[in-house]
Amino acid sequence: DMYFVADASEEGGYLVSNRVGTIALKSETCCDDIFRYSWDRGLIPKFAVDKFAYDADDSTMTSLTDYDVRLYQVDQDSSVILIDETHITTEAEYFFTLKQNKNYKIEATKEGYFPNEEWANTLGLTKSDTLHRWIPLKKLELNKIIILKDIYYDFDKATLREESNRTLGKLVDILNINPSIVVELGAHTDSKGEDAYNEKLSQRRAESVVKYLKKHGIPKDRLVAKGYGEGT
């Protein structure tokens, strides 16, 4: 038997073989032919993930309504692929089917809240199971300073480094989920250099973030860049 190939459903596939059952030209095993195979359904474990998003400040953990849930598959090379998504209108549970030996991210988003995510994987699982993942969402508070960590620039420059993309990508998500919000993006520098120089540098850094957001579809009239010079 050679050249086993699974089909898209992973419940069967094809192989090449000279086993008995081919069209016999010289003998019953004289020639290769293509065979289809399928797994015994009783031997294939089935996996799923379910539950709901709730307000992080709600001690009763009651399901929210009118929110979105997306399922992403995260591969070994850290690539993230959207697999499925659903919109929850009532106090109901989301439900996604999973594949064996895979790693997943489940992300919940709702207007007026910060997005949040939970993780689930079926690595090494051999028995059918439904994994439960409750996702707490924190309300957005208007007119409040929020510190964005992991925003990096080249030394003494306003050029954003690639390591900043993850955090800024989350900011893009928040602004897309909440289209009525206008934000001021404030930037600081370290204590080196003169005050006037640091103010100009921090202003350019804030403007770099604005440019990033505009490039990713956020309208300019929702963004204000402000440099504060030396600070934290």
List the helices and strands and how they pair.
Blueprint: E1 2-6, E2 12-17, E3 33-38, E4 47-51, E5 53-55, E6 67-74, E7 80-88, E8 94-98, E9 103-109, E10 116-121, E11 129-132, E12 135-137, H1 165-177, E13 183-189, H2 195-215, E14 223-230
Parallel strand pairs: 4-11, 5-12, 13-14
Antiparallel strand pairs: 1-2, 2-3, 4-8, 6-7, 6-9, 9-10
Features of the shown structure:
232 residues, 4-stranded antiparallel β-sheet, 3-stranded antiparallel β-sheet, 14 strands, 15% helix, elongated
Describe this structure in words.
This protein has 232 residues and is of the alpha/beta class. The protein is 15% helix and 35% strand. It has 2 helices and 14 strands, in the order ββββββββββββαβαβ. The strands form 5 sheets. The protein has a 4-stranded antiparallel β-sheet, with no helix packed on it. A 3-stranded antiparallel β-sheet has the order 1-2-3, with no helix packed on it. Strand 6 and strand 7 form a beta hairpin. The longest helix is centred in the last third of the chain and has 21 residues. The protein is elongated. The N and C termini lie far apart (66 Å).
Short summary of the structure?
This protein is of the alpha/beta class and 232 residues long. The protein is 15% helix and 35% strand.
Strand content: 35-45%
> Mean of residue pLDDT?
88
Distance between the termini: 66 Å
Shape verdict = elongated
Radius of gyration: 26 Å
Strand order, sheet with most strands: 7-6-9-10
Low-confidence segments, ≥5 residues, pLDDT <50?
Answer: none
Largest sheet: 4 strands, antiparallel
Helix content percent band? 10-25%
What is the overall number of helices?
2
How many runs of DSSP E, i.e. beta strands? 14
Would you list the SSEs in sequence order as H and E?
A: EEEEEEEEEEEEHEHE
Main structural class: alpha/beta
